[in-house]
Amino acid sequence: MTGTTGSRSSRVRVLIVDDEPALTELLSVAVTEAGWRPYPAPDGHSALRIARGCVPHAVVLDGMLPDLDGVQVLRRLRYENPRLPVLMLTARDAIEHRLDGLEAGADDYVTKPFSLEEVVLRLRGLLRRAGSERLPADDSVRVLGDLVLSGETRELRRAGEPIQLTAKEFDLLTLLLDHPRQVLSKAQILDHVWSTGFDGGGNLVEVYISSLRRKMDRGRAPMIHTVRGMGYAIRPVEDGR
Question: Most CB contacts within 10 A, which of 76, 119, 151, 233?
Answer without folding.
Answer: 119
